[in-house]
Amino acid sequence: MIKNRITDLFGIKYPIVAGGMVWCSGWRLASAVSNSGGLGLLGAGSMHLPTLEEHIRKCKAATSAPFGVNIPMFYPQIEELIDMVIREGVKIVFTSAGNPAIWTPKLKEAGITVVHVVSSSKFAVKAQGAGVDAVVAEGFEAGGHNGREETTTMVLIPAVCKAVDIPVIAAGGISSGRTMMAAQVLGAEGVQIGTRFALSAESSASEEFKRRCLSLPEGDTMLCLKKIGGIRMIKNDVYQRIKEAEDRGAGVEELKEIVGMRRPKRGIFEGDLNEGMLEIGEVASLIDKVETVQEIFDDILGEYTLLDSGD
Amino acid sequence: MIKNRITDLFGIKYPIVAGGMVWCSGWRLASAVSNSGGLGLLGAGSMHLPTLEEHIRKCKAATSAPFGVNIPMFYPQIEELIDMVIREGVKIVFTSAGNPAIWTPKLKEAGITVVHVVSSSKFAVKAQGAGVDAVVAEGFEAGGHNGREETTTMVLIPAVCKAVDIPVIAAGGISSGRTMMAAQVLGAEGVQIGTRFALSAESSASEEFKRRCLSLPEGDTMLCLKKIGGIRMIKNDVYQRIKEAEDRGAGVEELKEIVGMRRPKRGIFEGDLNEGMLEIGEVASLIDKVETVQEIFDDILGEYTLLDSGD
User: What is the pTM of this model?
Assistant: First the structure.
């Protein structure tokens, strides 16, 4: 896997992408990942435009290696954001949660490498048709926003690899050399790792959030809010209120009211473990300490190399 | 993977188990799998006692290779069933959906190899403590009855392998040489394949059910009925009624009434595609033809060997 279409596409050493996660993926995390030989992404989803611009500039100053920006397509000032990203000379953009046909042509015209995040083969084919250079195929086990069809990484990766010719980056449940190798066996040419980097030393998430995730019992995240999109989060107080409402058939309006606007920030960034929404992947239960990005790379690549040499 | 603790434990050639599935796993399927070098299981869950006894005898006549019986522990005459299985000289029993501490000692005393199906590390540790010889760790993507915690195969297998010393058989989303190899990379020593064998020529499922599953679009199964246990099924008419009821907050009694008693038989065995419950795994969307068990083994082992030799 180590040298392939994904490493060539981005000009990186290892086909390991760190997900562009809200309230986690600032310039510190993104530049550290890129400096370790992977691809770091800034998470535009939780940044106002001037903040993102600042993070892009700091990231450029902190690494000479390639990095990118993850842009959720429901971003309110998406047009200004796209213009700014082009103006700042960002070379790689990951888009998610929307139709890749809208912005891909403009980004490609500006010479930007474009990757779209999908949760099904159908969307992967659409993204390929829109001209993207690669897709991230993200399974049900991933944290945060999640596809409607609930297809898991084990089923999704072979399906997407069969459906498209462009390279596929596997996401959802990947955190180790072992799972990276499994993703490769399933046909992926790269991996996008979210949860483990969200809990790294360089992540902007609060210490309280990281500690809660690092002591998470197996099975303690759940995909909920399917009526308004589907988000995987830790089963804390807010989750219990959401579940109680869902169990009695609450509608879209009531669910939106419970969720409100600021809960992910409150949980992940400010560390309010009861009232914040704690978005994280299932695989958090297998991670037990805060590590630097370099330590994470050493561990993943060490395990991967051991497996590759026949155990 | 080919020669390991699982092949030794069962005395089989390949570490491939065919799940003991209701309305699919009769003597024809079980004996064919055992004759192909895997481990065939009879699915006791959909058989009355005399029927199961007949299938055990026919299976013995049809193969000299080891085979086993899958026993869901909520079986109404479980005590008589256990006695009959011992009396008939069955050598291997897989138990599921219950506490392994209750029947494992009696089965082990009779010289039977016991395997328990789990959906979490916690239950795997319990099963190991109860004295079982191995566990099947089954992920969220599997068809039919399913664990409460929704942990997927990609996350569950490394977790269970870390938690127990006995060998682990991976289930959920496994259907090919590629996925079998991925399961091995994740730490499993064997695989339990349900969906692909449910759709084989030797499966007792109706032609109508098989055809429906073989043309299934990706994302067209869903885990529902979580308030009464959690079952993955195809999104047909019955499913839509269940979903409509769940969305408006229907309680346990109403859901049980919709489900009734005979729907899995009606769907899988009798081929009523609208009113029957069509239990099948996510991976059905990747299977497109009825094959004999031998053809399935040839395909899986061919792909596995190719990958093992470095592609």
Answer: 0.97
